Amino acid sequence: MYYKKRNMSWRITLASILTLGIIGSSMAAPIKTVPWNGHIGAVSFTFDDALETQVLNLKPLLDAMPDVHVTFFLTAYQSRLYENASLFAAIANTGNEIGNHSVTHWHLTQETDTELEDDVINFADTLESILTKHGVDIQVTSFATPFCENNDYVKKFINKRHFINRDGGLDGRNYWNTEPDWMTMKAKVWTRDGTTVKEMLTALDTAANIGISNNTNPSEAQITEGSWVIFLQHDVSKDSQNIYAINPDDIRALFQRAVQNKLWAAPFGTVGAYYRAHFAFDNATMTKIDGGYSLQWDIPHKHMPKSVPLRVRLDTTRIGSKTTIEQDGKNILPESDGTYIIEFMSQSLILRNTGEVSLPKASKIKQNTKGYKFSLYNLNGKPLGMVKDFAVPENYPKGIYLIRAESNGKPTITKKVVK
Length: 419
What we know:
TIM Barrel
């Protein structure tokens, strides 16, 4: 709604307030990442050692469950990479992740600097090169330590080439607002004489905030939120003599439970990138610009994936309902649930209230208000009447209002008033 006086048209909106600097030159942004991509929790199934049985027995299951994608950590140990490269390239082409499990699958904590360079850093490039020759364009950004052996020195080498690393042990659980050590993410490890399938199913329930988290530690506290749980498996077969072999039927049951619980069943690097990105994005501040404000953030690691789509939500209690999101010169349209998908790796976006006209900048100098007339407005610019000074009448409901003071020959003053 427009208010006209002395041949001037203007409209008061929250975007105008931001342009005026009434709220301030920078503030916490009214846009946040939606936890776990809109799911109650997440799960990542990871498979180590580049075993042929993994592809042969998992591909039919994954083809039948398009909502489930997994991670394969490959090694050149015993020539497994070279023998199975075409198989892993084909399964990577359907949305599954390829990660680095070292060339030799040796004890990294016992290696020299040169050996760590080859095992950890150079092999990531080798993986990308070999699989590209087999028809898949991949980016290797995640690592998994052989034998789950790690220390601070090894982590330095992993960190040079990967944004995240998976070890083993504990319950493999991560919480949305608790930032972990990205170079030693824990995973729940499957072995026939260790974690049972029942315990893994329970872990999938607790990741979805169903029941209590007593799958590995009975004294663990009651779960109060969805979480991300990471699983580590090796051989996928019916080989009862191999303690590391998990039956394909059991894996099917785990996949089905993840889907049933509406978990985000995505690769380790995919969930990890989303999870890590949110700590940077949600702590960014916005700066006022003409007609709205901009938001900028830093990339937390130089080896993040090339694309990290984030599902975000606008806090409409703090921003006008006509606000749009612009990124890379394009308007981002909302999803069916009202959220938006933005590209984290673009490092910036603009929030703009379309079609609005900014008010002239108000004077920030304290003035004698004698001779001024005071007009009261709501945040949508609707005039509510005349008031005395910068005070909302007692009979008005609690909320946020705008009061504009005008006088001939004097600067106009606009203030936000909270009642």
